[in-house]
Design brief:
Blueprint: E1 2-5, H1 10-22, E2 27-30, H2 41-46, E3 54-56, E4 62-64, H3 66-76, H4 87-104, H5 110-120, H6 124-145, H7 160-174, H8 183-193, H9 196-201
Parallel strand pairs: 1-2
Antiparallel strand pairs: 1-3, 3-4
């Protein structure tokens, strides 16, 4: 399989982590979002949304959108399970994952920040304030949705909620969000980064990483 990915993309980070947790081999194909590779005709034909990640299966099938890809991965390679089978537990886990994926990430991605700067005159400082505001808002919600424990988000092993949280915390740390108000989130990130599947998927450890 080929994973079209950008090293700092939190959505790509999610897929790298899931593939690593499942022990699935894949080839990374870098897509430089800052350079605009996602808008090249060849890539736009592959992924009309002009984003990452894009997962191309061995038979050539193309999958896009990280949450849809995560669902496919978990359904195709069930162990270890990332999305609970129990309907109630599944709803609780997905509420956390979706808060990150649907509420926080979309208002912090590169395209939106670019629009704020180019069309609405936002300074770099204002853009950073925007991102940090929405990450704090989302983290506050997630913090209340998480069970109080000393393990992962919903048990002894990581699942899709842990994956989404850890990827977003990378972005939060990058832009200076103070995690002292979010002890559950900070705990989960530390537990996850102690696992090789997460550490190997970390942006700094990608072939296209730039200092």
């Amino acid at each position: 399989m080929k994973l079209y990915s950008y090293w700092r993309s939190t959505t790509s980070y999610r897929i790298r982590t899931a593939l690593n947790l499942k022990g699935i081999a894949y080839e990374t194909v870098p897509v430089d979002l800052v350079a605009g590779d996602q808008r090249d005709d060849g890539y736009a034909e592959l992924n009309p949304g002009k984003g990452v990640p894009t997962l191309v299966l061995d038979d050539g099938t193309v999958l896009t959108q990280s949450m849809a890809i995560l669902d496919y991965i978990d359904a195709t390679w069930p162990a270890p399970q990332l999305i609970p089978a129990d309907p109630l537990q599944r709803a609780k886990v997905m509420a956390v994952a979706d808060t990150i994926a649907l509420d926080v990430h979309p208002v912090n991605n590169l395209r939106l920040i670019g629009q704020l700067k180019s069309h609405f005159g936002a300074t770099p400082e204002q853009a950073t304030d925007w991102m940090c505001h929405w990450m704090k808002e989302g983290f506050a919600a997630v913090e209340t949705l998480l069970p109080k424990s000393d393990v992962f988000a919903f048990g002894e092993t990581p699942n899709i909620a842990d994956i989404c949280i850890t990827a977003q915390v990378y972005n939060a740390r990058r832009w200076g969000v103070d995690l002292n108000d979010f002890p559950n989130i900070a705990r989960i990130e530390q537990l996850c980064l102690n696992q090789s599947a997460f550490a190997d998927a970390h942006p700094d450890n990608q072939p296209d990483a730039k200092v």
